[in-house]
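User: Show me sequence and structure for the first protein, then do the same for the second.

Assistant: Starting with the first protein.
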Amino acid sequence: NKFVAGFIGSPPMNFIDGLLKKVDGKFFFDEGSFRVKLVDEMRAKMGPYENKEAIFGIRPEDIYDKLFVQEAPPENCIVATCEIIEPLGSEVYLHLVSPSRKHTFIAKVGAHNKPGINQDLNLVFDMSKVHFFDKDTEKVIV
C-alpha cells in the first residue's frame, strides 16, 4: 500500500495526485500540468480506474535528467523546476516542483548533474518502475 511504499527507501517514494485517462486505447496519468504514458503491461489492471483519480508513485532514482539519457520517449518527459540542490558526494538530490506548482518531488541523480536553482529541467520518468495507488483506499493498483 501507499504507506509501506512511502516508508521504504531514502529518500522516500514521490507521490503525485492525478487522473488516469485513456486516449486512443492507451492509458496516461494526467497531473493537470503534465501527462505521462503508462507502459502496456499496466493496461489490463487500469480498466476500472479509467477517468478516476489515482496516486502516482515513483522513486527518486527512477527520475532522470533528459540531458543524461540516451532514450527519452517524449510521452515520459516532463519539465519541472529545480528548487533545491542537495549534493551528497557521488549523488545529488534535486528537489523539484511540477509545472502546476501543486506537487514537489525529489530526483536522485549523479554528481555530474549540476542544474541551477530555479532552473527548468527536462526530466524522464522510468514508467516501467512506477506504481499507482487507489486514491480512496491507498492500496496498490499496479
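Switching to the second protein now.
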Amino acid sequence: MNALVVSSISPTDEEMNRLKGLCISSLASQNYSIIESDLERENFNPCISLSDYPGVSEQSISQSQKKAYPNNYSVDILQEIEKIKQSDLIIIIAKLKFGILPTRLVGWMQRVFVLKFAIFSEDKYLHGKKIAFLIKTDGRDQEETETRTNKFIEDSFKSVCMKAFVPFYIHQDINEDLTREYLGNEISWLII
C-alpha cells in the first residue's frame, strides 16, 4: 500500500519536520510505501489561475469550455494528481498559523482536489482512498480552532465525496507515543 504524505512546513521548523519524520517512519513500519509532497520545497503555487489550464484562453473559461479540457492542466497539478492516484492513504501534516491552515496547503486542496475531482467529478480516482490530518495548533482557543478547522476540512472533502477522518490535533509539545498510536491504531483500520 502507498501513503502520500503532504506537508507545508518550513525547512527551519525543527518540531514540524520531526513530526513529519515520525509520521513517515511510523507508516513505513506498517509496510506503507511513502510518496511525498513537500509543498514548501516544491514551491507549490497556491493560487488558482488561467495558467492552470494551458491552452485555454480567458474568453473560453466558461464551465462548458473547461469541461472540454479535463486533462489539460498545469504540470504541478498533474504531478499531484498522479501522486493521489498512486496512494491508498493520504496524510496531511500542517501547523496552524493564526488559527488557519497554511496558504500553500489550502491552495493545494483547492487546486488539486476541488479543481480536478469536484469540478470534473473524477471521483473514481478517489474511491477507497482515505485522508487523515496531523495538525499542530498555535496555542489559540483550542475548541474554536478545532471546530473551524474541522468544518473547513469536512466541507473541502465532502465536495469530492471523500471521507476525511477527524484530525489529530497537537496542542503542546509533540508526543511521539500518541502520534504513533494515532498513525498505528487509528489509521490501520482506515484501509480495508
